[in-house]
Structure formats: structure tokens, C-alpha cells
Specification:
The structure holds two protein chains of two kinds. Chain A is α/β, with parallel strands linked by helices. The model of chain A has no long low-confidence stretch (mean pLDDT about 90). In chain B, the strands form two sheets. A ten-stranded mixed β-sheet of chain B has the order 8-10-9-11-12-17-16-15-13-14, with helices on both faces. Classes of the chains: A alpha/beta, B alpha/beta.
């Protein structure tokens, strides 16, 4: 069936900001979908609030609305653009819910918009657990025994009836928020209450827990001729009970016989047909009882998902791209398989390797969060690795995580389990945590049997046997090391066995050095990783690259999508073009997210357009960079020195033949810290752009200070401390408050603003403790103590300098929150709203001077603090920054593309002449970036913003005034600023003066003010009326702040932290706001911005604007 | 210093040598072959699960099966999944065999099964390199084992392969036997029939399984409602009386053929078969059903195919193509337009593989019903 000709304009909804449970996999899917639809000749209208995405590049859609994702905005876009159809399946749960809402609300009918891909009935059947259960029972599929409750009493009665243990899931939720298990009545009461609050429809499903069953997923596609295929089967390493997004997962399924697999496949097809997904992909999850194979359907997602992105990368079958084609009328057999070019997409990929996905968590960033995995997803990113066997792919995945692990133990960090006895170790492994897989190996190494571990943890014995194989090889290497055998003594066969099990050279070096035998003084020679590599290569054992080809090599593949393994044959083809290797940014994590993938993708696009062949190296399956279409060659590999060296060897060899072209170099400055820290391990002449020496200079505190002094650029006063006493000395010299941080970022810990000696002693002591745990001391890694400029305005600048010294300052952003809140967590405005021309000129001048002094060739980001007209430099990073995509969206200047071209030698003048480097868009629009924080996932974590970054993503609001743009940005993060009601204010003393202006504005536009006693007294003495005065929490005789928030009367909370004195009060207020979903602002600056926003919103109301219009 | 055996879990190094001289390193698994040497025609199979069904499928008689998926043996074996009483293939080539199975269904490990079935194998092989080689150069003779490389080379070079050889006589039953309990009566020609096929037929009929050369008059004398032509190994052109037997049956009784049965039916109506470059061996081949346009994902295992152009377009045995492989356009099914008969090249019974084409057994039943009316 050909494409539909009755449709002209198609609306695509994105998934919004990166949040836990919904990350950049939807950028990957949505970008593919938009491209396909445009290539088919449709006019594409896209709405997505996330500026850091590729899909919101103005070239991807005909009309791009970077606007809040809510029903009002979408209705406005529909009214303006009059789409014929809405594709609801590309924007995750957010997109699906919004499409459903537009349908239910009559908007689609009113404007004659057809839902394509999944209709409203299918969405309701899949998403409403009651309807889904009925539907599945109708077709004879078993679902867990369960029932629904809409209030607590009902939940308790139902729970008793079903019987414990129970699993509780809220209806219409995203990534399992509010989901939990209950072993008894008390737990049920707690989890049910949370679940009811989390569900937008106040409904929870209570079901008999099937924790310990095996979990599988099938990725299924269906076309409108009713052809169905399974793209990929996935088996979870972790049994049921851990959210699939938090599980280690493996493709293909390992422990299903064909009889069981085919029965599951039949069930999956019956499910997608019954739910009524007419075209596109769906993800169907099954639980299988290990003792008898009994199979239950757990859930189905009638849309592309995190798992479908993984399945696409795992098999080379681009689900989203094909789903988009199916939605406009094609059938599977009409769509070619890109990878082979010769066969149709109506087949089921077969693979000849094993894929392992491991989530990456951020518990260290969230003090107060309990490090335990469950049915509520908590990871912020993931890695995928490909190996020929499970052990190889597992070890590669572990080192892809970049958490200091060289593989499955066999490194220094494995000692963390030494102090536990066997039983304690097994007990720990029973509780699902990020460390479980390491605990399992440690237990196996001590002789705990796989059967005992399987029994205790529910992990399938097959996986445990595979871990045991790794463990045995590990012990063998260690024994060899202990008996004085060095790398040069290993024969080819030994190398091959070990490398085929996925051991890194770093692990081998550690183990041959005696490893964990405690042979510190002893017989084992110290072996370094370079020595291991050299000996291995001398033995003729080098990485070979295989191809992901969808067909197990049955047909020739034309897409160079490679992974490394240790086999006989290398499939990398010769190249006759200059190649640039782009190192990606690895897993998403707090502090390094989609923004850096965006930069790498832009580099690839710009360099391909300029005639280079681009080679991408990355291990994050969620991203656009790991789409096989993005670059000329894709290596799905960990970003470590060893793995990158292997890729470089292969690429250099690819140019060795007659007519071959050399590798022009490697770009390390666009993927965040991940590639940057590898700069030193690369051949210096291959590092493109800013030199590693300059990168070091910017990071080396003392040399950086000297440089600033030489350039006469002021910095906040500060010093370096090696001990608590030294820290106190520095603090007393510069004066409190001070900002304290480690000179090297250790898992992002422990940046803090300190106001007194007592806290300083505590913080520095804690830092020393965590250093000691990592085997370092403060003398190796000193603590930085700097004067904290209270109330300063922070400014972020993104610029590019070329090899001739020409500099373009593309974006200057003024932060809403004052300096001290991490720039990644702060809202910011472009153009700046309060900076004088003088200050702007100073900022510009300093930026140019620093770029010049660091001899930057490529991007640079500089952060300043402005206080009372003085400009202080805080730090400079000669690499692409988190704000690059935002700047590009706000100004229309493709900063990352410009930077990439400059890195490979183009001058800014050339790029101007070419038209790539344009002047920033005029038009008077203001853009505001706001951070999205994960607090709703982590009850017990204080929502206070600080110098430690904790946001997972960002949104952008565009308006004709700052107030409108800010209001939109708040709306986009889900904080709808109120238009009436009460505002609750509780301000620290130092914030009272600053808060007065905001309070006055609130009062003037008709809000009722509620304040704690001190704040109230201050406001009233300044002529601002306070309607209700509340006591602090626990003080008797007055209406408690928490009760007031719970009552629903308060519509906005402004609570700033008290730098000195007890903080408990604020914590309770903020927690109450979070629980009752009342917007809570923790800085005075944000309160002022909100007040402005509310005023402007009341004056102008909602209007939407596309990027194409903003950029002119 | 650690020896080789320590690293390979007690396994002995072995080699796989192809007829064209390519050598692959691995370790011996399964049964110990006499002189440490086994030979056969090497084919690859791309299924992710279903190794036991593949290994016991009589169609692989004379062949050595290389699995492209690296971990083979994960869920062990169970007698329920046997496609024949014992394996007919000559050996297995894999990348990895796990130490023990993990499945509630397993009664033994894959390696135990290999040993018990007297089936040698080789593991640790770069099966992807092997597959890419076979993809280009076609199925070819091979030798593998612990024997010296020179002997393996010699054996591989002189391995005759399956072309022009009658492998059916060896795998077919010696005497008729009955199975199934359905209401109809079906005679099934055993050219190497799989158990799953008999189970599918057995649900429709009481099935009398007869040897490959069972004379047509004897079959007709049984008064069957339908005749089934099974799968089987090797070159259809090498077979003797089967095509003539089938020609006698056509028009007398409804006939349904699968795989080799399909090729023999083609020969019976005067069409030609030819050898494919490397055959179809996997569980993921898309086949279009021409009457509805539907695509079914099919299980396939064949080295030979029917030449579409050679199907008669007129006469008593006029036929038309009903199913086509979407990967390469190979004929996957045809039906006679003048007599009640149809056949498919692939495996609608699955075992292993998807169930998409099971409707064909129902179609056979309907054809029988129509004829009896």
C-alpha cells in the first residue's frame, strides 16, 4: 500500500525535558520520525519544550515549537497549524498522554485531526490497566491477579483480598513513579497513598507481586495489512521487582527454548492486535515463572519506548523510522532494510552477538535517597555494549558506565566487598542495588555457588554461570600474577581466552600485579596497562571489528555499524576519504546529558557536509549519535583509552591501503568530560582543536589563577587547603561565606556553600573521608576554598575561537538564580535582562582574552559572577558546554557546527562567507532555559538548589518579554504559575530585602500573602500586608505551614534556605510542597522572576511561536 | 604456567577446515569422533533458539550445522523438542556452549546430548567469519576435529557434499507406521519427516507414515483422504522413483508437500529444481502469500529450490506460484490449478520457528473436505 495522499501536515509531539524514565531515546525516535515524514513529502509540525534535542533543530521540521507540553499549548498549535494528523507514538508517555488528552478534550475532532499510529481507543486499552486486563483476559492471556482502587480504604480492602506480597502501580504514570511493593498492611497504606497521589487520575492498580519471576520484553511491529514481526527479544538479568529501566537487560533472550519463545511471540501478536495498535511498534513485557514457564503479560506500551530504542540499536532495525512510515500507510514489505539495502523490513532481525544494557544511577548526587532499586525507575542514563558473548558484552558495558570500574571487578574498587563475610555479601546481593552484579562476582569468587545465589536473588543460573566463568578467569590471572607471570609470558591462546571474556587491559594489569591477593609488597611485579597492551599486540591478539547487520551475516551489509570483539576477522572497510573521529559523551548522567550528544551529532553533520567522513564512537543507546545514519561510520564502544585506541588502530588501518586516506584527527571537546579526559591517551598530533595542554591549564587551579592575574581578570578570593586547619585559615582570610569543593570532581560530590567554622570543619572532614575511601588523600587532591559572592548575578558565555585568533561570542546568558546555584540547575535568560552595557563589554572582553590566552581552537564556555558592577571570572572550560544547544535555539547560530568546523581548521571568516556562521537572530525575543529536577522520584531528598548540580534536563520558554518566557519555562517544567490564591513566603534573613519586591508584586496583583512570623514582620514593616502568619513547624499555637500547604490554599511557595542555623523547618516546607505538587521556589531571584512572569502572563496570555519565526 | 586445557574448561584444541582450505581454531565438544575427524557439508543456520530441533531435523543428513548465534545450549535439551529419534546431521559448529543448561524443561545439557547422540562438535569458532565465507562461496565440504591439520585438509577436500546424492533412503522409515488421532486418514511419505509435522497432521488425521519409495497404488489402496509429502535431506534431483510416485498420486487424492516434498512435487509435474548459492537456513525469512499479500515470517531449511519459470502453465499439472521469498524472490510455494495439490518450500509446522504459516495444515484439511464433497 502506498503512502497516504490525503494527509498534508502531520503534528509530532516530543517528550519534553530529559527526566528519569523519559530520556533522549525519544529525541532519537522523534528525529527519525520527523526526517522520514519530511522525506515522504509531508509538512511536519513539531512541539517539544526541550532545546537540547536534535529534533528541535529548525531543519528537522517545517515548524518547530519549543513550547511547554500541555494541552493549552498544543491546542494553540493545532489551531495555528491545522495539521491533518497527529502522530502520538514518538513522544513517550508524555506524547501519548497529551494526544489522548487532545482527543478526549475534543480538540482533535474540532480541527479534524486524525490520530495515526495509535488511535485513542488503542491508547486507552493499553494505558488504562483495567481495560488492558479485561482485553488480555478476553484473548486468553494471563495477567497478574489484581484490582483497582481510587482511595485508601478501597486499596486496603483489595490488598487484603489479593494477598501479600503486593505490587502497587498508579494508572497513567511515567517510568513507574509512585510504584512500589508492600509486604504487609503498614507498607500497603504508605505505598498506596503515594501511588494515589502520583496518579493523574488518582487510581492505583494493586496486584499480587511476582517478584522473582523472570522478566522478558518483546519489541513488536505491526502494519496496516496486519503483518506482525518481532524486532527483538530482551531478557532482564534482574528478576521481576526491579523496573525494567533499572534492570540490566540482555538481548536476545537467553534462557527461553524455542517452544517457549514462539508461544510468547504468539501472545505478543495477539496482544498488539487486541489492543488495536494499527501500525507501529509496541513493547510488551512478560513475566515467566522459572519453575514451570507459566507466563503473564505485565504491560504493553503502544508506542516507541526506551526499550524500542535499545532494540533498534541492538539489532540495526530502526523501529521509529519504520513506525513513522507505517503510520502514513506503508506496509513492512514496502520498506527496505537500510542495513542490507537488499531485503525488506518485513523480517525479524537475527543477531550473532549479545547486547547488554546497564543503567547508570546518580544516587551520589542525591543525599537522602535510598540506594535501592525497585519498581520505580531511578536511573538517569544507560549504556549498551555489544560483544560476541554475554561475558564480553557485560564487561564492556560495565566499563562504558565510566564509574571507575575496569570491568566486572578485577580492579581496585573490588576491595569494597572485602570486609563483608560470605553471608553478608549474599544478603547484600539479595537486595537490588547498582552494586549487585559486582557483589555476585565477589561471592562467586569466594566459592558461593551459582545455585545458592540464584535461589537467594532470583537471577537466572545461566547468568550466574557466565559470571562464574569471568570469575574463574579472573582468579587464574591473579594467581599467575602472584607467581610472577607477567604479560610478556602469556601465550596467544591465553590472551585470546581472556580478551574474549571481555577483560580490559586495565583489569589484566591489575590482576597480573597480584590483584586482590593483598600482594602489596610481594612477588608480583607492578604491571601497567600500556605494558599489557604492548605484550598483547606482540602476541598478535588485537581487537577485530564486526558489523551489526540485522541478519547474522546471511546477507552483505552496507552500513558500517561496528563493535569490537576478539575474533579472526575484521570487517572495517578501507576508506579513501579524510576521516574525523568524534568521541561521544557516554551515558547520560547528571551534569553530562543530551546536550553533549547534540554537539557531537552537530559536529558529524557539519563535517559530513564539509566533505569529511565522520566516525562516531559512543556507547549510549538512547542517543541520536548512535543512530547508524548519523555518521559515516559508527563504533558502538566504551569510551575508554583502550577501546578508543582499538577504534583508532582500525581506522588508521582502513586508510593504509592504496588510495587510502588518513585519519585527520579526533574531536574530544564536544562530548563533555568523557572524551576530554582521554585527550592525553591519544597520539598528540591526532587531537584536533584546543591542545590538551590548554585543557589542563584551565583545570589546574594554580596555573589558572596565575593566568587570570596576568590578564588582570578578577576572581573571587580563595585558596587551596590540604587540611581542615588550612581550610579555616583560607576562610578566615577571605571571609564567609565560602564555596568549598574538591579540586577534582569525585562522582560530583561535596560542593557546598559554608557560612561558619563548624560547617567548614565538617565538610572538609567529610571530603577527606571520601577521598580516603577512594585511596587518595587531600594532599593529592586538595580542597578549594573560595569566597562565595552572595547575591551576585551569574553569567554564562559561549564563544568560539578559530586558529587565527578570531573569536565569536555567540551567547551571553544571565542566570536567574544567583551565583552559588549550579549553573546547570539555574534558569537563565538570553539575552541578559539586567546587565549594563559596561558589564556586557567587560564580559565580552574577558571572554576573548581568556580564549586567546588558552589558545582555544573551538568552543569555550566561561562563567562569570557580577556583583555591584564588578565582573569576576569563576571558571573557563575550553570545550562545548551544556548551554550550546540552548544558545543555538535562542540565537539561530549553529554554535556546535561552527565549533566543529573550526576544530578541523576552518576560520570564522570562511564560515561567515559560507553562511554557516550567521549573526544572532534579532526580533526582540527572550529565551529562558529552566532546569528539570528529579525530586519527585526521591522522597526524602531536599529540593533546595545549591552548588551541586542535580537536574536531569532542561526546557526552554520563548516570549516577547522576560516574564512571558520565564512563565513558559516554568509551565514547561510542570510548574504552572498560579494566577490567584495564596503565596507562602518563608525567607532567610539575608533574603528578606530581596524578597520584598517579589512579595509586593504578588500582593499588588491580588495574591493573598502567607508568611512565617519573621518574614511576615519584615514584610508588614515594609508596608506589604500579610493575611496569615504561621508559626514555624512544631511551634505551638499557630496554623502549621505544612498543614496550610496540604490544605490546597497555598498555590505557590517561596522558601529560601537559611545559611546559618537549623534548616529543618525549610526541609519540611519544601517536602510538603513537593508532596502536594505546589510550585516551590527556593531563591529570591526565582520568586522575582515568577512575579514578573505572572504579571506578564495576566497581561498577554498564551501565544505560541515557532523557532523558524524566531530565527527569522 | 597455565596450560591450554585450563583455559578451555578441559577441552582439547581442534580445527575446522573447509574444502577450500580456510582454517578456523576452536575446541572439541560433544562426542569424540573416530580418529578425531568428522566431515560433512557445512551449512549455517541463523536461528536464535531452537538448536535442538535443528540438530535433530533429518533434513540436515550429511551436513554439519554452524550456528550464527554464539551461545548454543543455554536451555539444554528435552526429548519433547526432538524432531527425530536421533540427530542426522554430522556435527555442530558453535561459538560457545554454556557449562550447564538453565530451564525447567531441560532434561540434559546440550553437550551431554551431543555425546549421547554420538555427535561431535567444535566450539570457540568465529562463526561470523565462517558465515561470511559460506555466504560468498556457498555451502561446501568441511572436516573438523582434533586430527592433525593436514588430515583435516585432505578430508575436507574430498568430502563429497550433498549434490547428486540420495540421502533420503537413509533417513526414511523402513516400514509403515501409524500416529495421530484426528478424524481424517492421511498417508505421509517419510523423506525425513520431522516430529512436529506429524504432530500437526496428527491433529487432523490418523496418519500412516510410509517409506519414501512406497508405491502409489499401495498408498491409494489405503484409501487415504489426503497424502502428505514430507521434508527431507539433500538433492531432489538425485532421487529415483519419488517423483513418479507423486505423479501417479496427483489428481487421485489431495496432496500437500513441504520442503523436499515440495521439490519432489515440482519434479512430478515436470518443473526443475536448482541449488541455491548457500540455501535458506533460519527462522526469520519473510514470505509473501500472493493471494492475500500478507507476509509471514517463516522457518526455512533448504539448499535447493523450484525454478518458477519451469512450472507448467498448461496441461493436467498446470501450476501457479503461491508464495515468494521477499529476500531473494525464490519460489516458496505453488499449487496445481487442475488437481488438488499444493506445497511450500518452508516449514509451516515450525519446530523451530514462528507459527505464522500454520494455517497451511488447515488449508490442507479444507482441500480434503472440498474434494470429498
Amino acid at each position: 500500500m502506498p503512502r497516504r495522499h490525503d494527509l498534508e501536515t502531520i503534528l509530532v509531539i516530543g517528550s519534553g525535558p530529559i527526566v528519569i524514565g523519559q530520556a533522549c531515546e525519544f529525541d532519537y525516535s522523534g528525529t527519525q520520525a520527523c526526517r522520514v515524514l519530511r522525506a515522504e513529502g509531508y509538512r511536519v509540525v513539531l512541539v517539544n519544550s526541550n532545546p537540547a534535542t536534535i529534533m528541535t533543530d529548525p531543519e528537522i521540521a517545517d515548524r518547530t515549537y519549543v513550547e511547554p507540553l500541555n494541552l493549552d499549548v498544543l491546542a494553540a498549535v493545532v489551531e495555528r497549524e491545522r495539521p491533518d494528523a497527529l502522530l502520538p507514538t514518538m513522544g513517550g508517555q508524555t506524547g501519548l498522554n497529551l494526544a489522548f488528552g487532545l482527543s478526549e478534550g475534543g480538540v482533535l475532532d474540532a480541527f479534524g485531526v486524525e490520530l495515526i499510529g495509535a488511535n485513542a481507543e488503542a491508547i486507552a486499552t493499553a494505558e488504562d490497566r483495567d481495560q488492558f486486563k479485561t482485553a488480555m483476559e478476553e484473548i486468553g492471556l494471563e495477567v497478574p491477579s489484581s484490582g483497582f482502587a481510587t482511595h485508601l480504604d478501597e486499596a486496603m480492602a483489595l490488598g487484603e483480598r489479593i494477598g501479600f506480597p503486593l505490587m502497587i502501580r498508579p494508572s497513567f504514570i511515567l517510568g513507574g513513579a509512585g510504584t512500589g511493593t508492600a509486604e504487609d498492611r503498614a507498607e500497603l497504606a504508605r505505598v498506596a497513598a503515594e501511588g494515589l497521589a502520583a496518579s493523574p487520575v488518582h487510581q492505583i492498580l494493586i496486584e499480587r507481586s511476582i517478584a522473582g519471576w523472570k522478566e522478558f520484553e518483546l519489541e513488536v511491529m505491526r502494519d496496516r495489512a496486519d503483518n506482525c514481526v518481532v524486532v527483538c527479544s530482551i531478557e532482564n538479568f534482574d528478576p521481576m521487582g526491579v523496573h525494567t529501566g533499572d534492570s540490566i537487560t540482555v538481548a536476545p533472550a537467553q534462557t527461553l527454548s524455542d517452544v517457549e519463545y514462539q508461544a510468547m511471540r504468539d501472545d505478543a501478536f495477539a496482544c498488539i492486535r487486541r489492543v488495536g495498535v494499527e501500525t507501529g511498534g509496541s513493547n510488551i513485557q512478560f513475566a515467566v515463572r522459572p519453575t514451570d514457564g507459566r507466563r503473564l503479560v505485565i504491560e504493553m506500551n503502544p508506542r516507541v519506548s526506551r526499550s524500542s530504542a535499545l532494540a533498534s540499536k541492538a539489532t540495526g532495525f530502526p523501529i521509529a523510522k519504520i513506525a513513522a512510515r507505517l503510520a502514513v500507510g506503508y506496509t513492512l514489505d514496502e520498506i527496505p532494510n537500510d542495513i542490507t539495502g537488499a531485503t525488506p523490513a518485513s523480517f525479524e532481525p537475527t543477531i550473532d552477538y549479545v547486547v547488554t544494557k546497564i543503567p547508570r544511577w546518580a544516587f551520589e548526587k542525591l543525599p537522602g535517597a535510598v540506594e535501592r532499586l525497585g519498581t520505580r525507575m531511578q536511573s538517569v542514563g544507560e549504556v549498551m555494549a555489544i560483544g560476541r558473548t554475554f561475558p564480553e558484552s557485560l564487561q564492556k558495558a560495565i566499563r562504558s558506565l565510566e564509574q571507575g570500574r575496569a570491568g566486572l571487578n578485577g580492579d581496585g574498587a573490588e576491595k569494597a566487598y572485602d570486609f563483608l563475610d560470605d553471608d553478608e555479601l549474599v544478603t547484600r546481593a539479595c537486595s537490588p542495588t547498582p552494586g549487585r552484579v559486582f557483589q555476585l562476582e565477589a561471592a562467586l569468587r569466594r566459592g558461593v555457588t551459582p545455585d545458592r545465589l540464584a535461589e537467594a536473588t532470583g537471577v537466572d543460573p545461566w547468568f550466574l554461570d557466565q559470571l562464574a566463568i569471568i570469575s574463574e578467569a579472573r582468579m587464574r590471572l591473579e594467581r599467575m600474577g602472584a607467581t610472577g607471570i607477567g604479560p610478556a609470558d602469556l601465550d596467544r591462546r591465553t590472551w585470546r581466552v581472556v580478551k574474549r571474556l571481555g577483560f580490559s587491559d586495565a583489569q589484566i594489569a591489575y590482576l597480573l600485579s597480584g590483584g586482590g591477593t593483598g600482594d602489596a609488597a610481594g612477588t608480583a611485579p607492578r604491571v601497567g596497562e600500556p605494558e599489557v597492551r604492548a605484550a598483547r599486540l606482540a602476541a598478535g591478539v588485537r581487537a577485530t571489528f564486526k558489523t551489526v547487520d540485522t541478519c547474522g551475516a546471511e546477507f552483505a551489509a552496507r552500513t558500517p555499524y561496528h563493535y569490537a570483539t576478539y575474533e579472526d576477522e575484521d570487517e572495517v572497510r578501507p576508506s579513501e576519504r579524510r576521516r574525523v573521529v568524534i568521541l561521544g559523551s557516554g551515558p547520560n548522567r547528571i551534569g553530562q546529558g543530551i546536550e553533549f550528544d547534540y554537539c557531537c551529532v552537530h559536529a558529524s553533520m557539519a563535517l559530513r557536509a564539509a566533505g569529511y567522513e565522520t566516525v562516531m564512537v559512543n556507547c549510549n543507546p538512547e542517543t541520536v549519535s548512535t543512530d547508524y545514519d548519523t555518521s559515516d561510520r559508527l563504533y558502538f564502544e566504551p569510551i575508554t583509552a583502550e577501546d578508543v585506541a582499538n577504534v583508532l588502530d582500525a581506522e588508521i588501518a582502513a586508510g593504509d591501503g592504496p588510495g587510502g586516506a588518513p585519519v585527520a584527527g579526533v574531536i574530544v571537546s564536544l562530548g563533555g568530560q568523557t572524551p576530554l579526559k582521554l585527550a592525553h591517551s591519544l597520539p598528540p598530533k591526532l587531537v584536533l582543536g584546543t591542545s590538551p595542554a590548554s585543557i589542563d591549564l584551565a583545570e589546574d587551579r594554580e596555573r589558572w589563577n596565575l593566568l587570570c592575574e596576568r590578564l588582570s581578570i578578577p576572581q573571587p578570593a580563595g585558596g587551596i587547603a590540604l587540611s581542615v586547619d588550612e581550610a579555616l585559615t583560607v576562610a578566615h582570610k577571605v571571609g564567609y561565606p565560602v564555596l568549598v569543593r574538591p579540586s577534582y570532581v569525585l562522582g560530583g560530590r561535596a560542593m557546598e556553600i559554608v557560612y561558619d567554622d563548624e560547617r567548614l570543619e565538617h565538610v572538609v572532614g567529610e571530603l577527606a573521608g571520601s577521598l580516603a575511601r577512594e585511596g587518595a588523600t587531600t594532599s593529592e587532591r586538595p580542597v578549594l576554598v573560595d569566597r562565595f559572592l552572595e547575591g551576585a548575578v551569574e553569567v554564562d558565555v559561549d564563544a568560539v575561537r578559530d586558529r587565527t585568533g578570531d573569536v565569536v561570542v555567540v551567547g551571553v546568558m544571565e542566570h536567574v538564580e544567583e551565583a552559588g546555584v549550579h549553573s546547570g540547575d539555574s534558569a537563565c535568560a538570553l539575552p541578559p535582562q539586567t546587565l549594563s552595557d559596561d558589564v556586557m563589554a567587560t564580559v565580552d572582553g574577558h571572554t576573548r582574552a581568556i580564549a586567546e590566552a588558552l589558545e582555544v581552537v573551538g568552543p569555550i564556555n566561561v562563567q562569570f559572577a557580577v556583583k555591584e558592577g564588578s565582573v569576576y571570572v569563576l571558571e573557563a572550560n575550553p570545550r562545548a558546554s551544556r548551554t550550546v544547544p540552548f544558545v543555538a535555539k535562542a540565537t539561530g547560530v549553529p554554535v556546535a557546527m561552527v565549533a566543529a568546523r573550526v576544530i578541523v581548521g576552518a576560520t570564522l571568516a570562511e564560515l561567515r562567507a559560507e553562511g554557516l556562521l550567521r549573526p544572532p537572530a534579532g526580533g526582540g525575543w527572550v529565551s529562558v532555559k529552566e532546569a528539570v529536577l528529579p525530586f519527585d522520584r526521591f522522597p526524602g531528598v531536599d529540593t533546595l538548589l545549591g552548588p551541586e548540580m542535580r537536574s536531569t534536563g532542561e526546557v526552554m520558554g520563548i516570549g516577547s518579554t522576560f516574564g512571558l518566557a520565564f512563565a513558559k519555562s516554568q509551565m514547561a517544567v510542570g510548574t504552572r504559575l498560579p494566577s490567584e490564591g495564596a503565596v507562602f513566603l518563608s525567607l532567610a534573613d539575608r533574603d528578606k530585602a530581596g524578597g520584598l519586591e517579589a512579595a509586593r508584586t504578588f500582593a499588588e496583583i491580588g495574591f493573598e500573602l502567607v508568611a512565617t512570623s519573621g518574614t511576615a514582620a519584615f514584610l508588614e514593616s515594609n508596608g506589604v500586608p500579610v493575611a496569615t502568619v504561621v508559626a514555624k513547624v512544631g511551634e505551638s499555637g499557630a496554623s502549621d505551614a505544612v498543614d496550610l500547604i496540604a490544605s490546597g490554599r497555598v498555590r505557590l511557595v517561596v522558601n529560601t534556605p537559611r545559611g546559618r542555623g537549623p534548616r529543618a523547618d525549610g526541609v519540611h516546607i519544601r517536602a510538603a510542597a513537593l508532596t502536594h505538587q505546589v510550585p516551590c521556589l527556593t531563591t529570591v531571584a526565582a520568586a522575582r522572576a515568577a512575579a514578573t512572569g505572572i504579571v506578564d502572563w495576566q497581561r498577554h496570555g498564551l501565544s505560541v511561536v515557532s523557532l523558524q519565526e524566531v530565527h527569522g | 604456567m597455565s596450560g591450554v586445557d585450563d583455559w578451555a574448561a578441559g577441552r582439547t584444541p581442534a580445527l575446522l577446515v573447509l574444502a577450500d582450505g580456510e582454517v578456523f581454531e576452536g575446541e572439541a565438544i560433544g562426542a569424540t569422533a573416530p580418529e578425531g575427524l568428522s566431515t560433512g557439508e557445512l551449512v549455517f543456520n541463523t536461528v536464535l533458539s531452537g538448536y535442538q530441533e535443528v540438530v535433530t531435523d533429518p533434513s540436515y543428513a550429511g551436513q554439519v550445522v554452524a550456528f550464527t548465534y554464539p551461545h548454543i545450549g543455554n536451555y539444554g535439551v528435552t526429548v519433547e523438542d526432538d524432531e527425530a529419534a536421533h540427530p542426522w546431521c554430522r556435527g555442530v559448529v558453535v561459538r560457545d556452549v554454556p557449562p550447564r543448561p538453565s530451564s525447567w524443561r531441560a532434561t540434559a545439557s546440550f553437550e551431554d546430548f551431543l555425546r549421547r547422540s554420538d555427535l561431535p562438535g567444535i566450539s570457540g569458532i568465529d562463526t561470523r567469519r565462517l558465515t561470511r565465507h559460506l555466504r560468498v562461496d556457498g555451502a561446501m565440504g568441511c572436516a573438523f576435529g582434533t586430527a592433525p591439520e593436514l588430515e583435516l585438509r585432505r578430508a575436507a577436500a574430498s568430502e563429497p557434499g550433498t549434490t547428486g546424492r540420495d540421502l533420503v533412503t537413509g533417513v526414511s522409515c523402513r516400514a509403515p507406521y501409524q500416529c495421530g488421532s484426528g478424524p481424517l486418514r492421511i498417508v505421509a511419505y517419510d523423506f525425513g519427516v520431522k516430529h512436529t509435522m506429524l504432530r500437526s497432521l496428527g491433529a487432523l488425521a490418523t496418519v500412516t507414515v510410509v517409506p519414501a519409495n512406497h508405491p502409489a497404488p499401495d498408498t491409494l489402496a489405503m484409501g487415504p483422504d489426503g497424502v502428505f509429502l514430507s521434508n527431507g535431506p539433500g538433492d531432489p534431483a538425485a532421487l529415483g522413483p519419488q517423483a513418479a510416485i507423486i505423479a501417479e498420486l496427483l489428481g487421485q487424492v489431495p496432496v500437500f508437500g513441504i520442503c523436499l516434498g515440495h521439490q519432489l512435487m515440482a519434479s512430478a509435474i515436470g518443473a526443475r529444481t536448482y541449488k541455491l548459492p548457500f540455501g535458506h537456513h533460519g527462522g526469520n525469512h519473510p514470505v509473501r502469500r500472493l493471494d492475500t499479500g500478507q507476509v509471514e515470517i517463516t522457518s526455512q531449511n533448504h539448499n535447493y529450490a523450484v525454478d518458477a519459470d519451469s512450472l507448467p502453465t498448461s496441461g493436467p499439472f498446470a501450476a501457479e506460484v503461491t508464495h515468494v521469498n521477499l529476500n531473494d524472490g525464490v519460489v516458496e510455494g505453488f499449487r496445481c490449478t487442475g488437481v488438488p495439490a499444493f506445497s511450500v518450500q518452508y516449514h509451516p509446522e515450525a519446530g523451530p520457528g514462528p507459527h505464522d504459516a500454520r494455517y497451511l495444515f488447515e488449508q490442507f484439511r479444507r482441500m480434503i473436505d472440498e474434494v470429498s464433497v
